Amino acid sequence: METESSEPGRRLRALVTGAAGRIGRAIRPGLAERWDLVCSDLRPDGDDLGLDVTDLGACRAAFTGFDAVVHLAADPDPDASWERLHPANIVGAYTVVQAARDAGVGRLVLASSAQAVSAYPAGVQLRADDPPRPANLYGATKAWVEALGAWAADSSATSVVCLRIGLFADRPPSGAAATPGDLAAWLSPADCTHLVMAAAEAPGVRFAVVNGISANRYRHLDLSASAALIGYEPVDDAWECD
Asked: Of 120, 138, 218, 232, which one is the catalytic site residue?
């Protein structure tokens, strides 16, 4: 599949921020098999690019020439304080979006979170078009990410897909602490890889917010828009994994 900004038959040129984080480490091998991939992080692994997402000039220079940027860099703690969240989740999110606009990136994929809608009543299946309703400051920063994405898509040539990522983990939650809600929100590494690929490659999308969980028997997040807008088809099920 090709984005509108890439030539048929050419591998997508993509950069991932936060590639040394938990999600980045898990999905980068699969992305590298399909794309011409550059991985970046504030604390890079090996030959990765060192990149501070709060540095506008550095991000603008790093993003130039890429078809897609996948923005994962953030403090991922739902209990994090404002002081911890402000640099990466607020300033960094703006910087990345502004730099992508300035550099003419064709597709920007932004990691939002199910925490952006975590204040809805328990037991309600959440749709991708439900407006943000966060229960914590971390979720509020992800609502900010989605708003920035909408701004970029409506004010520049950069198209944007925001991913409301569920409970990412190598295996489904288990043990006494695991809840049905945790299982319903699980996103496997393989499905996460495919979710990011679909978001970066889907043609004809100007702006979209889509949900990202696995094909769980019971689903905390509705996946109909994910299938319709970006062709995301997960395969793992938290209730069927051994």
From this structure: 138
